[in-house]
Amino acid sequence: MKKEALTLKNIQNSLNIQILFFKNNSLLKAWISAARIRTLPLSVSGILIGSSYAYFSDKFVFSVFLISILTTISYQLLSNFANDYGDGVKGTDDNRTGPKRTVQSGLISRFLMKRVIIILSIISSFLTLMLIILAFGLKSFYVLIFAALGGLAIFSAIKYTVGKFAYGYFGLGDFFVFVFFGLVSVLGSNFLFDSILELKLLYPSIALGLLSVGVLNLNNMRDLQNDAKCGKKTLAVLLGAQKAKFYHVFIIGSALVLMCVFQYDLNISSKYLNTLFILNTLGLFIHLILVFKVSEPLGFDKYLKVLALHAFIFSLLTSFFFFKTIV
After folding, report:
1. Is 154 helix (H, G, I), strand (E, B) or coil?
2. pLDDT tens column, 212-265
3. Selection from 239, 220, 217 nearest residue 230 by Cα
4. Most buried in the list 1, 36, 212, 243, measured by CB within 10 Å?
5. What b/e string do you get for 53-73 counting C-beta neighbours within 10 Å, with b at 16 or more?
6. Where are the alpha helices (DSSP H) in the chain?
């Protein structure tokens, strides 16, 4: 009897362990889903461009580059978690077209997500301060400027969907994405290395900002109907379905023009890099044609990753352009 009881107890313990593992595994998958890993390459694209130019100019500092990457990733994760929480609390995600969100579906509780957002805000603040001190020391006036920019970045990451006056609900998301993913990311990251505003990087910073806005616009076109019902007035909602497509053509088309002007100014002699550049721009042109043919909201979803990948490839190519002397 004792042996039988012991066997039953072992079976029960084994089942409990398997159930616990299943729950933990599901929770891990939920956090990975909430983190939206596919957005991370786009978030670091501007850092790659700004840092590679610093390397080309013999002003590169590895510690500044590393902390810049970590800081940017922390901002992006904070934004993704806050977006999941904000839309979940407001009920915007209840009938969304795209992938289900973790707070809305109950995979992660509001309480737990809110605590993680607070912790991640503290981590982002710490990384920002570390980055500023590494770049400028403690006595430079630039410390105040970049501390303000860092604070604004953290605030913007949270306030996109969180709170009563979340700016993502008033059509301002595109503006903030353009500024932070384009201008601040490229020009700001380069400034950290030599304290010089390098205007040569203006073209790629604007182009990358526009491509990033394009990714957001695809997301908003996909969710347009649901956002309109929930009172989330994204720029796509304000423009309407057809005009949002024309807006998409305008921002991606403008990015293509700037990319070509920038590549022409650099006068790259490498046929391999030029071929890759042509293929990437051709892919973006085809992207515009395919997006314009989409008739159902869910059809936009598959082009999100594609456009983000093109933007990341552009950042890599731009980085290689700066290394043209060794190609």
Report:
1. helix
2. 999 999 999 998 988 888 888 999 999 999 999 999 999 999 999 999 998 888
3. 220
4. 212
5. bbbeeebebeebbebbbbbbb
6. 2-35, 40-56, 62-90, 102-105, 110-136, 142-159, 173-178, 189-194, 202-222, 224-230, 235-239, 241-266, 271-293, 302-322
Q: Are 318 and 49 in contact (CB under 8 A)?
A: yes
Does the CA dihedral 177-183-184-186 come out positive or negative? positive
* Beta bridge pairs of residue 170: 233
Any idea which of 78-82, 189-193, 269-273, 301-305 has the lowest mean pLDDT? 269-273
Place of tokens 């890993």: 37
Centre a 10 Å sphere on the Cβ of residue 141 and count the other Cβ atoms it contains: 8
Structure tokens at 2: 């004792």
Report the C-alpha gap between 80 and 85 in whole angstroms.
Answer: 9
Nearest CA-CA partner of 79 in 114, 108, 45, 117: 117
Cα angle, residue 291 at apex, residues 289 and 294 outer, rounded to 5°: 115
DSSP labels for 249-314?
HHHHHHHHHHHHHHHHHHT---HHHHHHHHHHHHHHHHHHHHHHH--SGGGGTHHHHHHHHHHHHH
**Cα 223 to Cα 237, 240, 296, distances in angstroms:** 9, 12, 11
pLDDT at 139 over 80: no
User: Cβ of 137: how many Cβ atoms within 10 Å?
Assistant: 10
Residue 69 tokens read as 């990457």
Q: Which residue has the tokens 């400034």?
A: 191
pLDDT at 23: 52
**Is residue 170 classed as helix, strand or coil in its secondary structure?**
strand
Amino acid identity of residue 165, one-letter, is: F
pLDDT reported for residue 295: 87
Position 321 pLDDT exceeds 70: yes
Q: Name which of 258, 162, 243, 277 is nearest 210 in CA terms.
A: 258
